[in-house]
Design brief:
Order of helices and strands: EEEEHEEEEHEEHHHHHEEEHEEHEEEEEH
Strand content: 15-25%
Strand order of the largest sheet: 7-6-5-20-19-18-17-16
Helix content: 10-25%
Number of helices: 10
Oligomer: single chain
Largest sheet: 8 strands, antiparallel
Number of strands: 20
Radius of gyration: 22 Å
Length: 448
């Protein structure tokens, strides 16, 4: 039976522990004043102290509550930080609507493609060690991709030709590689299709799948188009090949543990499953219904680069703030400032980054806002970030020194335009006289 009662949202001072359906949970709250916070060593501040409005930040909760009331989403968590201080952390709606479990700020969400910036940052950490150049061919580490083929259409006929240039590390970081793990429509024989699909059985590791997929021709010559797809899987394998560690181990040891991201995993531990947000799907009448409730899954050894990570708002802000700070957080430096500037610069010219929408280019793992006048977002030139297919979004505005995070679990959310409007609801809460005179980090090609 569907629950129609709204969950009560409590202020920070009213924060208590409650038991619902036998599960101990934390009540949802909005951070509008000082107090204890899940991200214990992240600084927090009154919004007005960093040029933001407490009253206007409340509109973020109102925004998501409208979708909850219409049953279009079950619940949401949002976080806003400015000048390195968190001014808003809030949960509205339900973690699991059918079980009357309110959403909490420590809920764990499936990130989907918000995995990509983290995996890309991992490879750039190896770049800083002098392990490769951006324009080195990936075949130096994945030899199956030497002399790779490209599928081209010549009138009514399609054929394979030799690639015009090697696929490079820059190509896979920028989604201009043309590579795919999907054999459909690529002219493979039935035997070849069975080979690359492992006869329909799951692959034990991403590396095995990548090696077999080398017989799939690219969709275009490297560097000639922008195509969203499997490129970041190759980034993950490059991390593994170059470092000698699995991407899971590398991320844990080199990023998550140093940044104290204790709730970010490929494989969610059994004792944290009760905090995992249920996944919903749209219905024909415009509402949403339960697709998948939280449940423990046996650990996998298949670690994608394109997706796969799970995290919380309080964890992801640590990664986001590290990038915004030029590679450092709380005295822990993972990347150099110049490397971060290179990553959040547009490397794709005027190619259509259709997933993010008009006005965007793409850097080394991040979408980059080039022309705000063409964009759906209210953000400054040079703003960057990425989202996930299940409704997560991360963006940072380096001119305003502003970060916004939103988390929902709704594949098929596109008709709601819920992510596109989020940046507008965040930006309207900025009330000071102007942007940061000297942004801490801002990509190349953007006027300072």
């Amino acid at each position: 039976m569907t629950n129609n009662k709204k969950p009560h949202k409590r202020s920070l001072q009213e924060l208590t522990r409650a038991t619902v359906g036998g599960v101990l949970i934390a009540a949802a709250f909005t951070l509008q004043c000082s107090g204890a916070m899940a991200a214990e060593d992240l600084r927090e501040a009154r919004p007005e102290s960093v040029g933001m409005s407490s009253e206007r930040l409340q509109r973020i909760d109102d925004y998501f509550q409208r979708f909850v009331d219409a049953k279009q989403i079950a619940g949401a968590v949002s976080l806003v930080a400015r000048h390195g201080k968190v001014v808003h952390l809030s949960a509205v709606g339900w973690n699991n609507r059918e079980q009357n479990m309110p959403m909490t700020t420590d809920a764990i969400f499936y990130l989907a493609s918000m995995t990509k910036p983290i995996v890309s940052a991992a490879l750039m950490m190896l770049f800083e060690e002098g392990r490769f150049r951006l324009d080195d061919p990936i075949s130096e580490w994945i030899p199956e991709y030497a002399d790779h083929q490209v599928r081209v259409n010549d009138g009514a006929r399609a054929s394979n030709v030799a690639q015009a240039r090697p696929v490079t590390i820059r190509h896979v970081l920028t989604h201009t590689s043309g590579l795919s793990l999907d054999p459909d429509g690529m002219g493979l024989t039935e035997e070849e299709q069975r080979w690359v699909s492992n006869n329909g059985e799951a692959f034990a590791t991403l590396g095995e799948r990548i090696a077999r997929a080398a017989i799939i021709p690219a969709a275009f010559h490297p560097g000639e188009q922008w195509q969203y797809g499997a490129s970041t899987d190759y980034v993950a394998i490059l991390v593994e090949k170059i470092s000698g560690q699995s991407i899971d181990q590398f991320l844990r040891e080199r990023i998550f543990e140093p940044l104290q991201m204790h709730d970010t995993f490929y494989n969610i531990p059994r004792d944290k499953v009760s905090r995992v947000a249920a996944i919903y799907r749209p219905t024909a009448n415009g509402e949403s219904e339960l697709q998948q409730a939280a449940a423990f899954e046996e650990p996998s050894t298949y670690f994608p680069g394109v997706a796969g990570l799970n995290s919380t708002a309080s964890d992801y802000i640590r990664f986001a703030q590290m990038i915004a700070n030029g590679g450092e957080l709380n005295g822990v430096r993972l990347l150099g400032r110049m490397t971060v500037e290179l990553m959040i610069s547009n490397h794709t010219g005027d190619k259509d980054v259709y997933v993010r929408g008009p006005g965007f280019g793409f850097g080394l793992g991040f979408g980059v806002l080039v022309d705000p006048t063409l964009s759906y977002d209210t953000a400054s030139p040079g703003s960057y970030g990425w989202g996930g297919a299940y409704g997560t979004l991360y963006y940072a505005d380096p001119v305003e020194d502003l970060i916004g995070l939103m988390f929902i679990q709704l594949p098929g959310h596109a008709p709601l335009n819920i992510r596109q409007r989020f940046t507008n609801v965040v930006s309207q809460s900025v009330i000071d006289g102007g942007g940061t005179p000297n942004p801490k980090v801002q990509g190349y090609g953007i006027e300072r």
